[in-house]
C-alpha cells in the first residue's frame, strides 16, 4: 500500500487539500504567495499530491512534467516559508488523517520537497 491509498485515495487527498489551503491563506507569510481565487491551485495540488503519493499520474497527464522547482522560482522562498508550509500541512493532516504514522510519513515525504523549493 502507498501513501495515496493510506490517505484514502482521491477523496482523502482532496479532503487534505481542502483542509490545507484555508490555513495557507490565513498565514501572513504564505498568503501573499498564493492567488486569492485558490480553486484552480487546489485542483492542481490535488492532482500533484495524488501522483506524488503513488496514485494516478493526474498532474503529468494534464500539465506534463511537474518541474516544481522551476514553477516555484518566481517566488522568494526561504526556509521560514518551507517551515510555515509544512506547519500548515501538519495541521491539515491532524484534521484529516487519524493515523499518526501516516501523518509522519506524509510530512517526511513532503519535507524534502518543501526545502527543495527554497531559493533565497
Describe the 3D structure.
- With 120 residues, the chain is an all-alpha fold.
- The chain has one domain: Globins (Globin-like).
- Helices cover 68% and strands 0% of the residues.
- It contains 7 helices and no strands.
- α2 (9-26) crosses α6.
- The longest helix is centred in the first third of the chain and has 18 residues, at 9-26.
- The protein is globular, with a radius of gyration of 14 Å.
Summarize the structure.
With 120 residues, this protein is mainly alpha-helical. It has seven helices and no strands. The protein has one domain: Orthogonal Bundle (Globin-like).
List keywords for this structure.
120 residues, mainly alpha, Globin-like, 7 helices, globular, Hemoglobin_trunc, metal-binding, Globin/Proto
List the helices and strands and how they pair.
Layout: H1 3-6, H2 9-26, H3 39-52, H4 58-63, H5 68-72, H6 79-96, H7 100-116
Q: What is the straight-line distance between the termini?
A: 37 Å
Shape: globular
Structural class: mainly alpha
**In this structure, how is the largest beta sheet organized?**
none
The CATH class name reads Mainly Alpha
Q: Could you state the oligomeric state of the chains shown?
A: single chain
H/E topology pattern = HHHHHHH
Number of helices: 7
Number of domains: 1
CATH superfamily: Globins
- What's the architecture in CATH terms? Orthogonal Bundle
Amino acid at each position: 500500500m502507498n501513501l495515496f491509498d493510506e490517505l484514502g485515495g482521491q477523496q482523502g487527498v482532496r479532503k487534505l487539500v481542502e483542509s490545507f489551503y484555508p490555513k495557507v491563506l490565513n498565514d501572513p507569510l504564505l498568503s501573499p504567495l498564493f492567488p486569492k481565487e485558490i480553486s484552480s491551485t487546489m485542483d492542481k495540488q490535488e492532482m500533484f499530491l495524488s501522483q506524488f503519493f503513488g496514485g494516478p499520474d493526474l498532474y503529468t497527464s494534464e500539465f506534463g512534467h511537474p518541474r516544481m522547482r522551476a514553477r516555484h522560482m518566481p517566488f522568494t522562498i526561504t526556509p521560514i516559508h518551507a517551515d510555515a508550509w509544512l506547519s500548515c500541512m501538519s495541521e491539515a493532516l491532524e484534521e484529516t488523517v487519524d493515523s499518526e504514522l501516516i501523518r509522519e510519513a506524509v510530512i517526511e515525504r513532503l519535507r524534502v520537497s518543501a526545502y527543495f523549493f527554497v531559493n533565497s
